[in-house]
Predict the structure.
Amino acid sequence: MAAERGLELVRELHRAAGGHLPPFRTEEMRQALEEMRALYERNQADVYDRLLRIRALRWEYGSVLPNTIQFHMSSEEVEWFNRYKKSLATYMRSVGGEEGLDLTQDIKPPKSLYIEVRCLKDHGEFEIDDGTTILLKKNSQHFLPRWKCEQLIRQGVLEHVLS
């Protein structure tokens, strides 16, 4: 509606012959501006809500989003996600000593430090802290440190075996 009112005011201005200026329509101009302001505020709220949801995806899925989610994001949103994950990584490296502190792990306190996991798809080699390399092949089961597995569990590579 605001665009239609604004367009009509511009057309009226162009129809004025010989450089004459049509009368200023204060009320119509005020209504158009008020409607544009309301639309702008609703758009800003929607954008802010999407960014909050994209930020939450970093905590849920880790630093690599599944293609099915990235497909529904604009290039600007993907760029924002990449900047956010870099900023978060920089912060996590700056706290917690030499290795940093991964805030995305153990959001809830774990009951045990090691868990049994089953590999749902071939993933390749996986190195744990002591330098041991484990081959993650489909249907193989391993007893690994929880914090090393949680990211892969969220990505659908591993599943927690509950016995």
The CA atoms of residues 80 and 124 lie 30 Å apart. Residues 26-61 form the longest helix (36 residues). The helical segments are 2-15, 26-61, 67-70, 75-94, 146-154.
